[in-house]
Specification:
The chain is mostly helical. Helices cover 75% and strands 0% of the residues.
Length: 478
Amino acid sequence: MTETPGHPRWTDDPSGRSTASADVTGQDRPDAPGGGGTARAADRGVTAARDGAYLAAGTAVTAMSVALYAAIGARAYGDDAFDPIAVIWTFWAVSNACLSFPIQHWVIRSIESNHGDESLVSSALGRIWAWTVAISLVLGGVGWIYRDSFFPDSTAEYLFLVATIPAGSTLIGLIRGSLAARGRFRSLGLAIAFENVARAATGLVVVLLDGSVQFYGLALLAGYGIGLVYPPRFDRTERSRERSEHRVEGDVSSASSGADRPAGGLLVAVTAASTLRQLVRNGGPALLAAVQAGAGAPAELFQALSVFRSPFLLAQGVATRLTGWITLLVVQHRTAQLRRLIIGTLVAGVGLALIGFTGGAVLGKPVLKAIYGGDFDFTTVDFGLLGAGSLVSISSLLVSTLILTALDARRSIVLAWVCAFGVAVCWIALAPGGAVRRLVVAQFLAEVVAMLISLWLGNLRTSTASGYRPVRSAWWRP
């Protein structure tokens, strides 16, 4: 086994055999004479496309349901009364960033890199729920401290939501991670769609029954009912370990998968980066409320973000399918493919920024007016920057989260978003212009900075893995 200096877990296959034909279940798939291997590769491609279609459909439905929930509430209660719901949605986004998203991808990577053994996830559930309680206390404390700014008309119902949402986010993360790790992508697509369809439907019932805006906010909890349909369970029995041993026979070595490192550090790294991302992307409404930017301003920004974040939601849903595949590229030492993926992400990011700015500037205002009614106090440049940031975030997600997570590059994951968050905070604090303009520029800059730093660090990691030693400072090893 050949070790690369500084990265002993990354090795090149000394036998010259390719592990690309190993099935994800660990069963060998040798290429049979007469093109049988090609046929099987085609079958795997069809399966991946079908899985992606399930996830894309489920995420598209949930993105439209988010916009529908916001549109129903804004038209029924008005922007001023809807401001607290916009703030609650910010807490929901942060809770998802701290819990749902990192737990989901950590579960997928843990099970995939351990060849189907679920005992690691099962044994960590106690620590995960303890972390959930801690996040709940922190978010509840923030809500209580700023209650007069966030929830001026009613406090109890909204603080109950703030304290309850983290438990639901953990539940969603475990459900999605377990379904994806087991290859149940059709069920995962249904679970993704159900979450926000249930919220929109429950919210509509509240409006039809002439319920208060506080009850409309409580409709957010309906999305967690998916736990009754797909309760997350993980196998910690001997059967799970036997499945792991069977998959090792497929020539995938756990020594290079990162499975030998403690799992908690990776989960904390993804949690930190995801939290900073969501604070930048969805913290605007709460910030406008905290600085008292004007009645209705938080609701307007929330409504705009609910539409402009749809491409990111779609990418985030499909990304669930990509996490396992990218992890296999790492486990199987296919560094050339990883580097091509990184370079392609950079090219795509530039193109997406141009498309997003043009689309946002041209279509942003008429689309929002058609959905929500009324006028939005945003300029054409504001809409363009929202569109550009929304699409660039897709490239940022791919490299700053999925690729670096698969590489187990914990410090790199955190560094990229610490730098991006720092740039956003400095711009909001020091740049001239109105509050909304500074927020949308900060969002765009943060996504660009996170993408570029992650691309650089990801390239260093894969270059080192393939034996190429780029020039870099001695203090940093991604």
